[in-house]
Prior knowledge:
mainly alpha; globular
Amino acid sequence: MPYNDTPRLGGDMGEFSDELNIRERRTFPDVSGDDRLYRRLTDIVAVMTASGSSADETYHEALRGQRDDEEFVILVFKTLDALNESAYIERWALVQLAIDLEHPVAGDYLAELVRRPIPEEQSEDPGHGLSTVTEEVILRTTAIEGLARLLRRDVDTTETLLETIASSDYVAMRRAAWFAIADSGRDDAVQRARSILQERGDGWIAELRRIPVEEAEQHDPKLIDPPRGRTPAPYGE
């Protein structure tokens, strides 16, 4: 009887079985103590990060089902606090989810995140790779967008935004806080913010304009003057 030497995965030839076991991999820690609540969190994050023509509509439908549940919003923040500092993608996803839920209880947490000191740079070469400081700034500017949304919904977040303009070491955060106030339509807050910017020499921030990308001045490629001469090796060989 010919021997079958076809490569296989499994045990001995006599007891080979075609079997695949998949173990659950949890990206987010379960701090709820309630499997049902935890599944709601992981399900909505899965919908949030999905793709396809109806992905956005599906995500907003999922948000509507959770938006009034304060317990769920608090779970989002507790899970966020339980993540490792280096889990930047997961941390950003939960911050964005908390913002999209648009629950007033989010205001205090987002304000606390914006106020947290930014940890020192952990990357050995932030100029050519991941910068941990940049990641932390992105988390805070995202949180500022959440404060801006709440402000437009009449949840007063002006003091945190003004404090950011006055004290943040990062231009991106000061700029985001300015636009949050400028978009609020609150003239008194806008005047206070403008005064703070001028006092610290950042008056130029208040003069910035946001325009659609199609209205931005585009460089004429015909004006590009490439260097002339012999093509450098190895392309000229």
